[in-house]
Fold:
Amino acid sequence: MTEAGYAPPPDWPSAGDEIGAQNFGPFGHDALIRYAAVSGDDNPLHLDPAAARAAGLAGPPVHGMLMLACFEPLIMRWRQDLFIARLSAKFLRPVLVEEGIRVLGRVLRSRGAPRPELMLRLTARGPGDALVILAEAEVLYRTS
Amino acid sequence: MTTRDPAQAAVQAREPGAAGPVRLPAIRVRTEPTEVAAFSRETFAAGTGDFVPLTFPFRWLTLPPIRALIVQLSGGEEFLPVHEAQSFVYERSLRTGADYVLDIAIETSEAPPRLTLKMTVAALQGEICARLETILRIVRLKGETLS
Structure:
């Protein structure tokens, strides 16, 4: 994979450009079981209502990593010529089983040189538009 | 004293009272195509390109020696690790059907109790491909029996 080219394409995004929102979920119990199977994260907190109650939650929370994973398709459906060099996130509040999220983003900073790169602000919002993940990504222009 | 448990051995290898991270021996892993495909399906990445999803390496933190060390450093089964923050830094994309070597270090901190896991994913030739940092807050269960 070519990690980065050195000249931005004519339609290279600018600071302030929006990445259109996408909805993911609702995440049912079956989706959490399937994610646990493919990720190995079978923490009972996510799968067992009793464990969730013991942790003080009304129901099993959706895996934070399942929600964080939604940012990659958000970015790659926006533009396929990007390489995500960094993604960092804070999980602010849980989203419970049977709930969904809306993810969206905005270009915080755009550079064309010395290599084309973007700094993105990404958010995931849950029921009631509550902020559940606050994230930032650094993406580079990928020429192939 | 010798042990065959890597988590136990890692903790024991640290000097008594020493601060700093507990480090596991290197672990060899593989991006099995079927596992990558299944992961892509469940994380909405299918159809967005032929690549290993960015968050795929997180699954290696659930490998038995790493999981055992997390449980041990968390204080045991009556505590639950709650994911608080996560970062990925990529030098290069991972390839499907390739072998990699993991280097894992876990550091504990107090008030509130947390574990900070740092993992590097390197090619067999030694080039680092990715770095992960995972912060887990440790929560004591309220005494309810888990099913």
